[in-house]
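Chapter summary example.
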Amino acid sequence: MKLLHTADWHIGRRLHGFDLTDEQQNAFDQIEQIAQAEQVDGLIIAGDVYDRRLPSEASVAMVNQMLQQLNLTDQIPLYAISGNHDSATRLATGTPWFKATHLYLHTDLSQAFTPIELTDTQLFLCPYFEPFAAQQYFNDESIQHLDQAFARVVTEMKTHFDPAKKHLLVAHFFVAGSSTTDSETNLTVGGLAAVPTDLLADFDYVALGHLHGKDALHLPNARYSGSPVKFSLSEANQHKGVWIVDTDETPVKVTFKPITPIHDVRQITSSFDDLIASADDDSINHEDYVGITLTDRQPIPNVMARLRAVFPRIVTLGRAAGFESQVRYHGETSQQIQQKSPMALLGDFYEQVAKENLTSQQEKWARAALKQANEGGDQA
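The structure predicted for these 380 residues follows.
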């Protein structure tokens, strides 16, 4: 059988305030095209369909449209699980009749132990869970950490193995030894927040979700698909796409299929003048989402507005290391400003805005407010 492995759609996600709906729709369209071109027998979604537990109405409508397009229109079987960003309860709505169209959506740990029987493969769908869920399921209070919980889960799964078939696991966790970026939410519940790699050894393939880079883990039988869209500057150098998993091969064969974004995410380090001059350079995609690091020492008036005239999708703007302390604001370096007291900073700010000094009464109010804030912080 041939399956497509994707994960971490995070529908509803924004990039520093920028709406990513068009990017996510474009990625979905390419996933659909890859599935059709490869004539896959099914499509795996390894968790985090939504970006938050309470998705907006627009996000729900978008996910519904995507699942209907794949499952009802294209008639592709879907094998999906909930991730740590999803609301298992909301995502599970409608599941009693999903199986009639071969849409399998597992959101509860108890569902993980009944494999989906395919022609040559058993598919175990294990949604994201916390150790307490395993403690309840197995009625064992000794289960306190994720590694203990996952060991019990795998042991139970193996009792259902059909030796004549291959065994695939779909899961949404951080696996020990994986590399992360700042766009991912690390799992910290249960004390030990990583699944040991040896617990995955008995599966022919493990389709993972949670980490956004396809190269986050290097195991012969386990892969993160990564997210189909770049969600932060830390993902700028990642190659997005999906895995095609062929169970007819032994060992299982996996092939990466790339996804091309409408607008890429890039980090640029340059001088202000060079960035402005690049407006006439047709080799540069000025519509990309960019994080800009300036190498200028001098202050630049209205810098963000002027740069946005060339790069309208600036997500961050900063100064290169060694340059930031030389930047002057109203005649002072940032280092000098950092050494000022809160009252002095407030006085400077008021003077810049109101064009006059604080009155003695205003200073008394400000000192009283600062004292109250400090006392509150000491009590917290």
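To summarize the output: Confidence is low (pLDDT under 50) at residues 186-192, 325-331.
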